[in-house]
Amino acid sequence: MLLLVLALTACAGETTRPLTTAESELLALTRFRNFDAGVRSVSFAVTDAGTRYEIDAWVDFQAGAGYGTVQLPDAEESALLAWTSQGVATAATAPTGPAPLPPPTQGWTSSELLPGQSRLHAVLAVLLSLGSDRPDNPVLLAQTDARWLREDSVAGTAVTVFRGPSSDAPAGAGSTTGTPAPSGPDESGAAEVRYWVADDGVLHRLEVSLGGDQDAVVIDLDDADVTFDLSQLQ
């Protein structure tokens, strides 16, 4: 089942409906499509503790690793950013444009990935959860509170927009059975995940609300023909 287990609340006035069988099968493919692609590009901006970070990176869904650049406010140069489920690392500066390949092995400062304490870290952790070596179970997915929202397009590609399930439990059940995903440091409001999915199951956009009164984080995903290895970072 989808691992993004976040408490959902529908937007006021929004028309939604339960998933059809075909829509459940489509949404169930998204994490497998990412894993099958291997590496995809991601770009997003997130405000964390009053600071806005702009990230352009790649995620290797098979390796469970991300690498790219992060632009800081008022900085002339970007910093390099690398992360796995165990930690996040930055290097002081990066050249203009995409992150260099292969990644440099020296000059990194590392820390633990703490999605419960940082909105940026929460989004990085969510990205790592978007890959799976097999499709999710569409029958079980159809029993959750996932919803169809609307038809849309992303960069000229027709997509269907879905609201993700709040848990792996059937709709109306009193308990959850899935593995919870990072909910972020702000527990003062409901969180929500939305998926923009093409008719081949490829995810083109993800919107993550981490709760509270801050704007949702919109993540755009695209194809990428790159490889990288973070195992030698120091």
TrEMBL record:
Positions of the UniProt region annotated as Disordered: 162-188
Q: Which domain of life is it from?
A: Bacteria
Under which name does UniProt file this protein?
Answer: Uncharacterized protein
Give the classification, highest ranks.
Bacteria, Bacillati, Actinomycetota, Actinomycetes, Micrococcales
